[in-house]
Amino acid sequence: ASLGGDRAPALPVPGGEKGAMVILYDKTKGTFKSDFGFPTEVQAIAYYYGPIYAKTNLSAYKHIQAISPTASFVSSYEGDSVQIGPSTLLIWKENNGDFYQEVAPIAVTRAVNLYAVLREKGYQPESVKLNKATLWLHGMHSSRRKDQPENVELIVNGVRHPIRYKGCGLRQEEIVPVQLEIKALSVNAPKPTRITITVLPFQERYPLPPPDSSYAQRGPAHFRDIEIWKAELELIID
Fold it and tell me: Which of 47, 152, 154, 238 would staple 129 via disulfide (CB 3.0–4.6 Å)?
């Protein structure tokens, strides 16, 4: 299924999610895709983030090539470039890029019935008082410059929470705690809690296309790369 345009299509809510659902974004069409349809709360997320994605220059990455800063032709290259590490230089090479994928996975989402979980654990969910909720995320990310925002967000029943990694290094393993707003969780009634993790694009300033290019003089945009190996929800209750 896909989601885009002026209004949401009438798509059925999947009957019982057995696992996490991946949401994809088509950079060319500006639409979201999923193999399992779009529950109402996921449609709301798409409508919030869709305009943010659309403002960036995501298609430019089909023209961006990664080379070694010591490559022989670097000295004769007259276009814009940006060095993103000791061994990687990004240059503009029209229609010959290394970073472009037309469809990008931009979110993972899952509905969890916390009411049912508490009942299975022997609690009476109707009378439970939730004092604190923490989602522990175990994984890594693809590095971040100090001038870049985190660009990773957790959405719980429509309430957005920033995810803040401690380190900026490439593939630096971390366990990241995210304190959740109590009002975002559904524990006292048998309705699902929708948990979604999404990435936002970085809009880079360079490299720009040559001045005589038919493409707009804008740098490329790309999504933040993250890996999540394990996610645990910790609830402190009375």
Answer: 238
Task: Give per-residue pLDDT as tens, 148-201.
Answer: 656 889 999 999 999 887 766 666 788 899 999 999 998 998 888 999 999 888
Neighbours of 109 (CB within 10 A): 22
pTM of the model: 0.80
Instruction: Give the pairing of strands 201-203 and 221-223.
Output: antiparallel
pLDDT tens digits, one per residue of 112-149: 999 999 999 999 999 999 999 999 998 877 666 676 65
